[in-house]
Write a structure and sequence with these properties.
By secondary structure, the chain is of the alpha+beta class. The protein has 14 helices and 16 strands. The strands form 3 sheets. The protein has an 8-stranded mixed sheet with strand order 10-9-11-13-14-8-15-16. Strands 5-6-7-2-12 form a 5-stranded mixed sheet, covered by helices on one side. A 3-stranded antiparallel sheet has the order 1-4-3. Helix 2 packs across helix 4, helix 6 crosses helix 7 and helix 7 packs across helix 9.
Length: 425
């Protein structure tokens, strides 16, 4: 039987082109259950998802003009965790499968090469994988609500669409903006990734944000911008300070009424220029909230989509051999791609699960990788009254995490700290 294949969506095109020997764009979603994982049930659950979610069970193929994703032919492989989270996915591994399904004690994890999907799509996959596991293991019937699908249904066409092509504006919006200050540090040996998790009561976080009249995302981005500013000001004189900007991914599904499981998000850089003066936290919260509101309207996002989509339609670029496209995309990414922000704060928001499923799940986690050219990133997810703020870094210096979580505590927000080296309260 002929294997299905999928064109890479517009956002996915860059990731195979710019990945390097010890870096590619991979992220993880995890569900912690209340009992140890049965690997046989998990393997069967993954196999049961294949027909309903075909765009996840794919491998990366190289063509003459473009990369593509091809359906895998063999059985789904489930592995016990064998290394630290987000271990590098080699080109050889991507040619075999672009996702990993892992387990460790009570935890189910899925790691995704970003060309397959974004955080929203990855969350839908994890929810359905966990739901099917619970059905097989405990005999529960999980209703099709809160992102859970009927596995007997055929995949919906809208789930497989490249929505960037559908929602592109008529005119492109300029992507020109000031270059931000860059975080830096001594690289960790053997590409080890430090992960420090702040476990926070969601109510306390909501109260702190709503007291300032902003969303949780705006509040966390403001605290992060303040922390980054402290580091920069400790290293540079005022005359050499550069803008501090936090990169916030925006899920475009809500803006455009789409329901794709492929990539459909864009980033917005928000923050301040400390050279112009001090920015107290409340002012940062207000400014970042207004910046997000100003940028995340459909008309403006459609123009930003057009800026990315229009080059893909260019006749000369379309017939350009892939190896030349790779050179062009790498040079553009190195010159522009990550120079406008200091790090990401990626918030998947509050996740709800069916009651029949929720009683088995104690926690959800979301971890994004470090970027191509800077060593820190931050990701956030809330479930069951708990918000997990995961900070990842590839450098040895823990200063950013210390400043960020200490500031939350100073603001009266309880934080329990965990790390992949040790745990403490």
């Amino acid at each position: 039987m002929k294997k299905k294949w999928f064109r890479l969506d517009n956002a996915a095109l860059i990731f195979p082109a710019v990945m390097k020997r010890r870096w590619n764009n991979v992220f993880r979603l995890s569900a912690e259950l209340k009992e140890d994982i049965d690997p046989r049930c998990l393997e069967q659950a993954a196999e049961d998802l294949r027909k309903r979610f075909p765009s996840f069970f794919v491998r990366l193929r190289t063509g003459l003009f473009w990369y593509c994703l091809e359906e895998i032919g063999g059985p789904v492989r489930v592995r016990e965790e064998y290394a630290y989270p987000l271990t590098h996915m080699s080109r050889r591994e991507l040619a075999d499968c672009c996702i990993r399904i892992l387990y460790y004690e009570k935890r189910i994890s899925a790691e995704f090469f970003h060309s397959v999907t974004d955080g929203h799509g990855g969350l839908i996959f994890l929810q359905n994988l966990t739901a099917r596991y619970i059905e097989l293991k405990y005999g529960e019937k999980i209703p099709a609500e809160y992102g859970i699908a009927e596995l007997g249904e055929a995949p919906k066409a809208e789930e497989l669409r490249d929505c960037f092509q559908l929602c592109s504006g008529r005119y492109a919006v300029s992507r020109r903006e000031e270059t931000a200050w860059r975080l830096h540090g001594r690289p960790e040996r053997d590409s080890f990734r430090h992960i420090v998790t702040g476990v926070i009561p969601t109510d306390a976080l909501l109260k702190a944000a709503h007291t300032r009249g902003v969303s949780v995302t705006s509040f966390l981005a403001a605290v992060m911008a303040e922390s980054v500013s402290v580091i920069q000001q400790s290293e540079r004189p005022v005359s050499r300070l550069r803008p501090v900007k936090i990169t916030v991914p925006v899920d475009l599904r809500r803006l455009f009424g789409m329901d794709t499981l492929r990539n459909f998000s864009l980033t917005v850089n928000v923050g301040c220029d400390p050279k112009t003066g001090d920015y107290p936290l409340d002012l940062l919260c207000s400014q970042i909230s207004h910046q997000l509101a100003l940028e995340t309207v459909p008309q403006k996002m459609a123009g930003r989509i057009a800026a990315n989509v229009n080059p893909q339609k260019n006749a000369v670029i379309r017939v350009m051999p892939l190896f030349i496209k790779n050179i062009v995309m790498r040079s553009i990414y190195a010159g522009v791609g990550e120079k406008k922000g200091c790090l990401n704060v990626s918030n998947l928001g509050l996740v709800r699960l069916p009651a029949e499923m929720e009683k088995y799940v104690s926690r959800l986690e979301f971890i994004i990788g470090v970027q191509y050219s800077y060593p820190n990133n931050c990701s956030v997810i809330s479930f069951g009254g708990v918000t997990c703020v995961n900070m990842i870094r590839s450098s040895q210096e823990p200063e950013l995490e210390r400043l960020f979580f200490s500031r939350l505590v100073d603001l009266g927000i309880p934080v329990s700290i965990e790390s992949n080296k040790k745990r403490r309260n």
